[in-house]
Amino acid sequence: MPPQDKRRPQRLTKQAIATGAAELAKRDPKLRSVLQQFGPPPLLRRPATFATLVHIILEQQVSVESAKSTFERLKDITAGDVTAEGVANLDESGLRSLGFSRQKAHYAVRLAHDCLDGSFRINTLSRLPDDEVRRRIIARKGLGQWSADVFLMMGLLRPDVLPVGDLALVKGLCEIDQNDYANSDALVERAERWRPLRSIATRMVWQWYVRQRGRDIF
Protein backbone atom coordinates (compact mmCIF):
# COMPACT_ATOMS: atom_id res chain seq x y z
CA MET A 1 0.00 0.00 0.00
CA PRO A 2 1.54 3.38 -0.97
CA PRO A 3 2.33 5.79 1.85
CA GLN A 4 -0.25 8.49 2.60
CA ASP A 5 0.44 12.00 1.34
CA LYS A 6 0.95 14.09 4.48
CA ARG A 7 1.03 17.41 2.67
CA ARG A 8 -1.58 19.96 3.62
CA PRO A 9 -4.16 20.66 0.88
CA GLN A 10 -3.37 23.54 -1.45
CA ARG A 11 -4.77 27.00 -0.70
CA LEU A 12 -5.40 29.85 -3.10
CA THR A 13 -3.59 33.15 -2.79
CA LYS A 14 -4.07 36.46 -4.59
CA GLN A 15 -1.13 35.62 -6.85
CA ALA A 16 -2.46 32.11 -7.53
CA ILE A 17 -5.80 33.65 -8.53
CA ALA A 18 -4.08 35.96 -11.03
CA THR A 19 -1.95 33.17 -12.47
CA GLY A 20 -4.89 30.78 -12.64
CA ALA A 21 -7.14 33.34 -14.30
CA ALA A 22 -4.52 33.87 -17.01
CA GLU A 23 -4.29 30.12 -17.58
CA LEU A 24 -8.08 29.78 -17.76
CA ALA A 25 -8.22 32.62 -20.28
CA LYS A 26 -5.96 30.59 -22.57
CA ARG A 27 -8.27 27.57 -22.37
CA ASP A 28 -11.66 29.27 -22.46
CA PRO A 29 -12.46 32.20 -24.78
CA LYS A 30 -15.46 33.18 -22.66
CA LEU A 31 -13.34 33.54 -19.53
CA ARG A 32 -10.72 35.37 -21.60
CA SER A 33 -13.35 38.03 -22.27
CA VAL A 34 -14.18 38.26 -18.54
CA LEU A 35 -10.51 38.67 -17.66
CA GLN A 36 -10.00 41.32 -20.33
CA GLN A 37 -12.97 43.32 -19.06
CA PHE A 38 -12.52 43.04 -15.30
CA GLY A 39 -9.06 41.67 -14.55
CA PRO A 40 -8.44 38.81 -12.11
CA PRO A 41 -11.24 38.18 -9.61
CA PRO A 42 -10.74 38.90 -5.91
CA LEU A 43 -9.74 36.19 -3.44
CA LEU A 44 -13.05 36.44 -1.51
CA ARG A 45 -11.50 35.02 1.64
CA ARG A 46 -13.47 34.26 4.79
CA PRO A 47 -12.14 32.82 8.05
CA ALA A 48 -12.51 29.04 8.36
CA THR A 49 -14.63 29.38 11.49
CA PHE A 50 -17.99 28.66 13.06
CA ALA A 51 -19.03 32.23 12.26
CA THR A 52 -18.50 31.67 8.54
CA LEU A 53 -20.66 28.54 8.58
CA VAL A 54 -23.44 30.51 10.28
CA HIS A 55 -23.07 33.21 7.62
CA ILE A 56 -23.35 30.52 4.93
CA ILE A 57 -26.53 29.19 6.56
CA LEU A 58 -27.98 32.70 6.34
CA GLU A 59 -27.05 32.93 2.65
CA GLN A 60 -29.04 29.85 1.67
CA GLN A 61 -31.75 30.82 -0.84
CA VAL A 62 -31.63 34.56 -0.07
CA SER A 63 -29.69 37.51 -1.43
CA VAL A 64 -26.14 38.14 -0.29
CA GLU A 65 -27.23 41.56 0.98
CA SER A 66 -30.07 40.18 3.10
CA ALA A 67 -27.85 37.53 4.67
CA LYS A 68 -25.14 40.09 5.41
CA SER A 69 -27.61 42.39 7.14
CA THR A 70 -28.80 39.62 9.48
CA PHE A 71 -25.25 38.44 10.12
CA GLU A 72 -24.19 41.99 11.03
CA ARG A 73 -26.98 42.13 13.63
CA LEU A 74 -25.68 38.86 15.06
CA LYS A 75 -22.17 40.30 15.20
CA ASP A 76 -23.45 43.41 16.96
CA ILE A 77 -25.20 41.46 19.70
CA THR A 78 -22.15 39.22 20.21
CA ALA A 79 -19.70 42.14 20.28
CA GLY A 80 -18.22 41.06 16.96
CA ASP A 81 -17.37 37.51 18.08
CA VAL A 82 -19.83 34.96 16.69
CA THR A 83 -19.01 31.76 18.57
CA ALA A 84 -20.74 28.45 19.13
CA GLU A 85 -21.21 29.31 22.80
CA GLY A 86 -22.72 32.69 21.99
CA VAL A 87 -25.19 31.27 19.46
CA ALA A 88 -26.16 28.44 21.82
CA ASN A 89 -26.84 30.99 24.55
CA LEU A 90 -28.99 33.11 22.25
CA ASP A 91 -30.97 29.99 21.35
CA GLU A 92 -33.46 29.89 18.49
CA SER A 93 -35.72 32.59 19.87
CA GLY A 94 -32.83 35.02 20.18
CA LEU A 95 -31.68 34.35 16.63
CA ARG A 96 -35.19 34.77 15.27
CA SER A 97 -35.39 38.19 16.93
CA LEU A 98 -32.36 39.16 14.83
CA GLY A 99 -34.00 38.13 11.55
CA PHE A 100 -33.15 34.43 11.26
CA SER A 101 -35.97 32.32 9.86
CA ARG A 102 -37.29 29.59 12.17
CA GLN A 103 -35.48 26.94 10.12
CA LYS A 104 -32.15 28.77 9.93
CA ALA A 105 -32.22 29.54 13.65
CA HIS A 106 -32.67 25.82 14.29
CA TYR A 107 -29.77 24.94 11.99
CA ALA A 108 -27.42 27.49 13.59
CA VAL A 109 -28.21 26.33 17.13
CA ARG A 110 -27.78 22.67 16.16
CA LEU A 111 -24.43 23.53 14.61
CA ALA A 112 -23.41 25.35 17.80
CA HIS A 113 -24.22 22.32 19.93
CA ASP A 114 -22.35 20.01 17.54
CA CYS A 115 -19.28 22.19 17.97
CA LEU A 116 -19.63 22.46 21.74
CA ASP A 117 -20.04 18.72 22.28
CA GLY A 118 -17.08 17.94 20.01
CA SER A 119 -18.99 16.01 17.37
CA PHE A 120 -17.92 18.61 14.77
CA ARG A 121 -14.45 20.14 14.94
CA ILE A 122 -14.09 22.98 12.47
CA ASN A 123 -10.41 23.52 13.23
CA THR A 124 -9.57 20.08 11.82
CA LEU A 125 -11.08 20.72 8.38
CA SER A 126 -8.09 22.58 6.95
CA ARG A 127 -6.00 19.40 7.08
CA LEU A 128 -8.54 17.22 5.27
CA PRO A 129 -9.09 16.56 1.55
CA ASP A 130 -12.07 18.19 -0.15
CA ASP A 131 -14.31 15.11 -0.15
CA GLU A 132 -13.82 14.52 3.57
CA VAL A 133 -14.54 18.18 4.34
CA ARG A 134 -17.77 17.89 2.35
CA ARG A 135 -18.75 14.70 4.16
CA ARG A 136 -18.29 16.24 7.58
CA ILE A 137 -20.10 19.47 6.75
CA ILE A 138 -23.01 17.75 5.00
CA ALA A 139 -23.47 15.54 8.08
CA ARG A 140 -24.62 18.66 9.95
CA LYS A 141 -28.32 19.46 9.86
CA GLY A 142 -29.11 22.23 7.39
CA LEU A 143 -25.73 22.23 5.66
CA GLY A 144 -25.70 20.65 2.21
CA GLN A 145 -23.47 20.41 -0.84
CA TRP A 146 -23.65 24.12 -1.69
CA SER A 147 -22.78 25.14 1.87
CA ALA A 148 -19.83 22.76 1.93
CA ASP A 149 -18.56 24.01 -1.42
CA VAL A 150 -18.75 27.67 -0.39
CA PHE A 151 -16.82 26.88 2.81
CA LEU A 152 -14.22 24.98 0.79
CA MET A 153 -13.87 27.86 -1.68
CA MET A 154 -13.88 30.84 0.68
CA GLY A 155 -12.94 29.47 4.09
CA LEU A 156 -10.36 26.89 3.10
CA LEU A 157 -9.45 28.52 -0.26
CA ARG A 158 -9.37 25.22 -2.12
CA PRO A 159 -8.52 25.67 -5.82
CA ASP A 160 -10.77 23.16 -7.58
CA VAL A 161 -14.32 23.46 -6.26
CA LEU A 162 -17.40 23.80 -8.48
CA PRO A 163 -20.52 24.82 -6.49
CA VAL A 164 -23.04 23.42 -8.96
CA GLY A 165 -26.04 24.61 -6.93
CA ASP A 166 -24.91 28.23 -6.83
CA LEU A 167 -27.41 30.53 -8.49
CA ALA A 168 -24.88 33.20 -9.49
CA LEU A 169 -22.64 30.58 -11.09
CA VAL A 170 -25.50 29.00 -13.05
CA LYS A 171 -27.07 32.27 -14.17
CA GLY A 172 -23.73 33.91 -14.86
CA LEU A 173 -22.48 31.06 -17.03
CA CYS A 174 -25.79 30.93 -18.89
CA GLU A 175 -25.38 34.61 -19.69
CA ILE A 176 -21.70 34.34 -20.65
CA ASP A 177 -22.30 31.36 -22.93
CA GLN A 178 -25.83 32.34 -23.99
CA ASN A 179 -26.77 28.77 -23.18
CA ASP A 180 -28.91 26.89 -20.65
CA TYR A 181 -27.21 25.06 -17.78
CA ALA A 182 -30.24 24.32 -15.65
CA ASN A 183 -29.13 20.68 -15.64
CA SER A 184 -26.23 20.23 -13.19
CA ASP A 185 -24.65 17.51 -15.33
CA ALA A 186 -24.39 19.96 -18.22
CA LEU A 187 -22.76 22.51 -15.93
CA VAL A 188 -20.22 19.96 -14.65
CA GLU A 189 -19.39 18.92 -18.21
CA ARG A 190 -18.97 22.56 -19.28
CA ALA A 191 -16.54 23.11 -16.39
CA GLU A 192 -14.31 20.12 -17.14
CA ARG A 193 -11.87 22.27 -19.12
CA TRP A 194 -11.36 24.39 -15.99
CA ARG A 195 -9.86 21.61 -13.85
CA PRO A 196 -7.94 21.91 -11.54
CA LEU A 197 -8.83 25.62 -11.29
CA ARG A 198 -12.61 25.49 -11.01
CA SER A 199 -12.68 27.69 -7.90
CA ILE A 200 -10.94 30.45 -9.84
CA ALA A 201 -13.22 30.00 -12.85
CA THR A 202 -16.24 30.21 -10.54
CA ARG A 203 -14.95 33.50 -9.12
CA MET A 204 -14.60 34.81 -12.67
CA VAL A 205 -18.20 33.89 -13.47
CA TRP A 206 -19.36 35.49 -10.19
CA GLN A 207 -17.40 38.58 -11.16
CA TRP A 208 -19.21 38.73 -14.50
CA TYR A 209 -22.60 38.14 -12.85
CA VAL A 210 -22.39 40.95 -10.31
CA ARG A 211 -20.71 43.47 -12.64
CA GLN A 212 -23.52 43.01 -15.15
CA ARG A 213 -25.86 44.11 -12.37
CA GLY A 214 -23.81 47.15 -11.45
CA ARG A 215 -22.52 45.75 -8.16
CA ASP A 216 -19.15 44.99 -6.66
CA ILE A 217 -18.41 41.31 -6.18
CA PHE A 218 -19.75 40.21 -2.79
From TrEMBL:
Coiled coil: none
DNA damage among keywords: yes
Domain HhH-GPD as annotated: residue spans: 58-210
Pfam family, one: HhH-GPD
Main EC class the enzyme belongs to: hydrolase
Matching InterPro entries: Alkylbase_DNA_Glycosylase/TA (IPR051912), DNA_glycosylase (IPR011257), HhH-GPD_domain (IPR003265)
SMART domains: ENDO3c (SM00478)
Domain of life: Bacteria
EC numbers, comma separated: 3.2.2.21
Record keywords, A-Z: DNA damage, DNA repair
Catalytic reactions on record: Hydrolysis of alkylated DNA, releasing 3-methyladenine, 3-methylguanine, 7-methylguanine and 7-methyladenine
PANTHER family per UniProt: DNA-3-METHYLADENINE GLYCOSYLASE
Protein name (record): DNA-3-methyladenine glycosylase II
Organism in which the protein naturally occurs: Roseiconus lacunae
